[in-house]
Write a structure and sequence with these properties.
alpha+beta, 17 helices, 36% helix, 20% strand
Length: 479
């Protein structure tokens, strides 16, 4: 009988270890910026093409590799070959000394600072590194295959903690010195990095962090990948090693944290007229002016004001818009699970999914029904295009066949009046109809409260910016 495989080690506290980063030899200015990329999960197909065209050594070739034309499934091997070639050709070079890296991002007057290091992996039940969203199998399988092939953490996860202690003071002191690298990317973010190697300062950081806990702001699938890779290595009998840690950017939310944005929804299969009719039975509904506001600036302003007094949502198809407030307490008691924490039940995004989408509108909370957009303009445009297509389809279907004598009714005012009651009336029955559901941002403190309760928020609940740039610091899993 085979001996049981020992469980992976669990740290006693939050540990962020120094490592020797693999970095671009072009370590400053536009030359460096042209080689970096946003995180893999915010790059679409057009973005991949654009980044590939920007520079032959752009990091997108590592984080989102393509298959060879004649070899389906070869993308992971191709990424590994690319990483080896760039290292051999000194496109990438390894730092000589292990370090924690102080990383600063500045954009439009907002400054975010933190530490990049190798975080010791912990089971969520340990209460050290807390997720707040669930993960899906597909992205974890994809990232795991890439990790196994390349033998590296190519991108950091993004962690937040409530600090204000020695670690934050060390970060503040470090940024007064000359940085290791400086670059500005085309999204308007200036990036600066310093290598922290002083042993006394590293010890102060370690002592301060050990008693704290962190929340995953971004990178839930990458963290799940870290833990899967760790478990696989231990199961294979490799024991402890670099796989017990994962690349992470740790930010003190209290001192220099990120901006928090909402992720808006596009709800398919329901026309605006029907959405308003159903919502009107359990929400207070107020019409808003959506004309001339494709970016949603006015709508978001009204939403923010209403959100100060409780749950608030805006629904629109780009032609009309409505503000939903003051949900019926009976609805909330019925829709929100009593066994979940108060922190979970008070979230706007929880009410949106469990009460509005599922209970009031009667729709399935699945990815084919509920889509996600990172900005209001895109959500509104998507809904408007769907509404226009649905209306066009309805109009086409209404054209009478040659010889249809009922067409004479159109000449009367009754038919025209019925048609104008709601252009979305025909959309109700059209499966291609869609509406944008705009939300207020979830405060970072609420995210932390849900995570501390050991619970998960609905998927795609928060957007933290700026996100750490990919390609600036890579962690090989060889030491």
């Amino acid at each position: 009988m085979a001996a049981p495989v020992p469980a992976p080690p669990s740290p006693g506290g939050l540990v962020l270890a120094p490592f020797r980063a693999l970095r671009y030899a072009a370590d400053d200015g536009a030359e460096l910026a042209s080689r970096t990329a946003p995180p893999y999960d915010v790059i679409d197909a057009a973005g991949v093409t654009a980044l590939e065209a920007r520079h032959p050594h752009n990091a997108v070739r590592l984080i989102l590799p393509r298959d060879d034309e004649d070899s389906p499934g070869s993308r992971y091997r191709r990424a590994a070959d690319t990483l080896r070639a760039w290292t051999a050709d000194a496109v990438l070079r390894r730092d000589e000394r292990p370090a924690l890296y102080v990383y600063e991002q500045a954009q439009d007057g907002h400054v975010q600072r933190g530490l990049v290091g190798a975080v010791a992996l912990a089971d969520p039940d340990a209460g050290i590194i807390l997720p707040h969203e669930n993960t899906m199998t597909g992205p974890v399988t994809d990232r795991l295959a890439l990790t196994v092939a390349t033998g590296a953490n190519l991108e950091p996860i993004f962690l937040l903690y409530e600090g204000g202690g020695a670690a934050s003071r060390v970060v503040a002191e470090t940024v007064t010195s000359t940085p290791l690298l400086t670059t500005a990317t085309d999204d308007g973010v200036t990036h600066r990095i310093w290598a922290l190697t002083d042993q006394e300062r590293l010890a102060a950081v370690a002592d301060d962090l050990y008693g704290r806990r962190a929340v995953i702001a971004d990178g839930h699938h990458r963290y799940a990948t870290y833990r899967r890779y760790q478990a696989d290595r231990h199961t294979a009998g490799h024991g402890g090693g670099p796989w017990d840690f994962g690349l992470a950017f740790l930010v003190d939310a209290r001192v220099s944290g990120p901006r928090v944005h909402a992720i808006h929804r596009v709800v398919h299969g329901l026309a605006l007229s029907e959405a308003v009719r159903r919502a009107g039975t359990v929400f207070q509904v107020k019409p808003l002016d959506a004309v001339g506001d494709p970016a949603g600036t006015y709508l978001l302003g009204e939403l923010a004001k209403a959100g100060q007094d409780g749950h608030a949502f805006v629904i629109t198809d780009g032609r009309a818009a409505f503000l939903l407030t003051r949900p019926d307490p009976v609805l909330l008691a019925d829709a929100l699970p009593a066994d979940r924490s108060a922190a979970f039940r008070q979230l706007d995004v929880t009410v949106a999914h469990l009460a509005l989408i599922t209970k009031v509108w009667g729709l399935a909370d699945t990815e084919d029904v509920v889509g996600y957009r990172h900005d209001a303009a895109t959500a509104i445009a998507t809904a408007a295009a769907a509404a226009a297509a649905a209306t066009g389809a309805a109009a086409t279907a209404a054209v009478p066949a040659p010889g249809d004598t009922t067409a004479a009714v159109v000449a009367g005012g009754a038919a025209a009046s019925a048609s104008n009651t709601s252009t979305a009336g025909a959309d109700v029955a059209a499966p291609d109809a869609a509406i944008a559901l705009l939300l207020n941002p979830t405060p970072a403190a609420d995210v932390a409260a849900v995570a501390a309760a050991g619970e998960r928020m609905p998927r795609k609940s928060t957007l933290f910016t700026p996100k750490p740039r990919s390609g600036l610091l890579i962690r090989p899993l060889d030491e």
